[in-house]
Amino acid sequence: MIPYDGASEMFQDSSKPLVLAPMAGFTDPPFRALCHEGGADVVVAEMVSAKAICHRNEKTLAMLRSFPGERPVVWQLFGCDAGELADAATYIESLGQADGIDINMGCPMPKITGPGAGAALLRDVDAVSRMLQRVARAVRLPVSIKMRTGWDSKSIVAPEIAQAAAAAGCAQVHVHGRTSKQLYEGYADLEVIARVKAACPIPVIGNGDVTTPEAALRMFRETGCDGVGIARGALGNPWIFSRIKSFFLTGQLDPEPSWWEKVAGAARHFKRALDFYGDDPSCYRGLKGHLVKYFTGHPGASQLRHRIGSVQSNQEMERLIAEAGAAHPLAA
Ligand SMILES: Cc1cc2nc3c(=O)[nH]c(=O)nc-3n(C[C@H](O)[C@H](O)[C@H](O)COP(=O)(O)O)c2cc1C
């Protein structure tokens, strides 16, 4: 059965990347490596503060570590001072582990927008233009931006900002099809992403609500974008990238991963984290948010999620994952 005519044409051209979009608190090196293995062409690390890098803040510098084999990886900076953004980008370039620098223009959180960073940058196209020129001149790495469609529904500026980014020397723009004021309400506006693509001479990555292969196809078809960014759809589901590619190549939907495949995926994720964080005794804490996602939507999952929430040690987490196969009603 070929449910969507022409789906297979989509990946004849391998220059249409599937991108793991950044998620603060989630897109750490182990998860990025799993997404690469799951078929992501490019992974973007969670945003880090340009100011904190300039001050060589230890915690922030630790966030610049990567997992062997996770390339290509893009580092995302947030900030509103052009000099700091340029210096932080230069520092990241000097570490020799980055394949690109992305500037965050989408974060709607008041602690980021208050000082003028994240989505607040969308309120001044001229300032964005000057800032991006300065960053793009400072590094040899490709510079990109990731933005919302605008600050609110009365100021949809993404097409203008994309043009400014291209003129400033940026290599790519990534658009989440919601305004900052919308947060995560409603649906991503594919029409605005299509307008960005039409206005902009550099590649456009379309982002928002791609949680299935069909949604990825719709994003490509309705916007004409050059690549698709996936964030929440990859949580507990790092296979999504290869499922999309398989759909595009064959026109057929692979079956959803089974409960047991998800248990094995969760175990692999935890092992990756222990390998990366060197058996940090509190490794299980950072994994809780990820592991509950592997078990969403299955019978018996809510009980398991509850148990994950009360885990107090790495050993307990390991035991719980090992028992999870047997916890499925069909395994009884
Ligand atoms: C928990 C969480 C953290 C996020 N952190 C970032 C971030 O650090 N930088 C960024 O540009 N976007 C961030 N985003 C936005 C996502 O990259 C993406 O644009 C948004 O979730 C819409 O895509 P999706 O529908 O595929 O999730 C975050 C989203 C979530 C849910």
What would your notes on this structure say?
This protein is an alpha/beta fold and 332 residues long. It has two domains: 13-250, TIM Barrel, CATH 3.20.20; 259-331. The protein has helices at residues 29-37, 50-54, 58-62, 82-95, 110-113, 125-138, 158-168, 190-199, 213-223, 240-250, 259-276, 283-294, 301-309, 314-327; strands spanning 18-20, 42-44, 48-49, 73-78, 100-105, 143-148, 172-176, 204-207, 227-230. Residues 1-5 have low confidence and may be disordered. Flavin mononucleotide binds at residues 21-26, 46-47, 76, 104, 106-107, 146, 176, 207-210, 230-233.
Question: Any descriptors?
Answer:
binds flavin mononucleotide; 2 domains; TIM Barrel; about 325 residues; alpha/beta; 8-stranded parallel barrel
List the helices and strands and how they pair.
Blueprint: E1 18-20, H1 29-37, E2 42-44, E3 48-49, H2 50-54, H3 58-62, E4 73-78, H4 82-95, E5 100-105, H5 110-113, H6 125-138, E6 143-148, H7 158-168, E7 172-176, H8 190-199, E8 204-207, H9 213-223, E9 227-230, H10 240-250, H11 259-276, H12 283-294, H13 301-309, H14 314-327
Parallel strand pairs: 1-2, 1-9, 2-4, 3-4, 4-5, 5-6, 6-7, 7-8, 8-9
Helix pairs in contact: 1-11, 4-6, 6-7, 7-8, 9-10, 11-12, 11-14, 12-13
The structure holds flavin mononucleotide (FMN).
